[in-house]
Amino acid sequence: MTLQQLRYVITVAEKGTISEAAHALFISQPSLTNAIKELERELQITIFHRTNKGVLLSNQGDEFLGYARQVLQQSSLLEARYRLGRKRKQKFSVSAQHYSFVVNAFVDVIKEYGRQNYAFALRETQTYEIIEDVARLRSEVGVLYLSEENEVILQRIIRRNGLKFTELFAAKPHVFIAAEHPLAVKKRLTLEELEPYPYLCFEQGNHNSFYFSEEILSSLEREQEIRVRDRATLFNLLVGLNGYTISTGIISRELNGENIIARPLAVDATIHVGVVTQRNITVSPLCTAYITALKKYI
């Protein structure tokens, strides 16, 4: 097994077809196919199922892909540390639920540590994808929350993927509403007061169970509910429809403007926000700096 073969497998998985992967790798299709078959024979596993439309990862292949990404990342770290005279591009990725402090901290890290030669990524995405991204090393760190509603299930998934959850802070639920909302004059809101207004939440794709919801108390029935994919759309609807969503109460006026405000929600619940990282891999200096920057905003 070679590093080159691992790169081949990752590229095929990303492209979905042998032909596209071969083109991206600048090798012939037969050479790529033979290299992967040779690896499968050596390890006595099936990494890809071949179909008329391309290739699909097998269950064994999905697990293998996670390990392959870890090996290549560690190889890159070794090269960056010990190969003199060669400038390597800094790489760092974050996957997170839709929090403004996640963006603020990301900006701080780029300003402080970003040299001219870097490739950083910030993915505001669905809860299940956050765990999957960190497990497969597409991102080094994830940011999400746990509560009494979802902790047992999410912690089980986190542990099963070889990850760990480290709490950053605990917050009481707050309601985000427009500054001109009819309830904005109140200092504290109840669920009963919010009933006449549209409830906004983030769509979770194939994992729309309330265990994966970004919003606490998501299992409650609402007469009016709107699901969205991005933070800007949600905030626009908050203003345009007098809607509301439930979050930590931490809000960035620089990112969200003066039109969105937070009000405490009168419920007995707690939001535990934290980071998800690999359990057996030491995080990079950039990741450590990012977690430090997160703590500054919370």
List keywords for this structure.
single chain; 298 residues; alpha/beta; Arc Repressor Mutant, subunit A; D-Maltodextrin-Binding Protein, domain 2; five-stranded mixed beta sheet; three-stranded antiparallel beta sheet; 11 helices; 42% helix; elongated
Could you characterize what this model shows?
The protein is 42% helix and 22% strand. With 298 residues, the chain is an alpha/beta fold. Among the domains are: 3-82, Arc Repressor Mutant, subunit A, CATH 1.10.10; 171-272, Periplasmic binding protein-like II (D-Maltodextrin-Binding Protein, domain 2, 3-Layer(aba) Sandwich), CATH 3.40.190.10. The strands form 4 sheets. It has a 5-stranded mixed beta sheet with strand order 4-3-5-12-6, with helices on both faces. α1 (3-15) crosses α4 (59-82) and α2 (18-25) packs across α3. It is elongated, with a radius of gyration of 22 Å.
Summarize the structure.
With 298 residues, the chain is α/β, with parallel strands linked by helices. It is 42% helix and 22% strand. It has helices spanning 3-15, 18-25, 29-43, 59-82, 100-113, 127-135, 151-160, 191-194, 231-241, 253-256, 285-297; strands spanning 48-51, 54-57, 90-96, 118-124, 141-146, 163-171, 174-178, 199-202, 225-228, 245-247, 260-264, 271-278.
Q: How is the topology of this model organized?
A:
Blueprint: H1 3-15, H2 18-25, H3 29-43, E1 48-51, E2 54-57, H4 59-82, E3 90-96, H5 100-113, E4 118-124, H6 127-135, E5 141-146, H7 151-160, E6 163-171, E7 174-178, H8 191-194, E8 199-202, E9 225-228, H9 231-241, E10 245-247, H10 253-256, E11 260-264, E12 271-278, H11 285-297
Parallel strand pairs: 3-4, 3-5, 8-9
Antiparallel strand pairs: 1-2, 5-12, 6-12, 7-10, 7-11
Helix pairs in contact: 1-2, 1-4, 2-3, 5-11
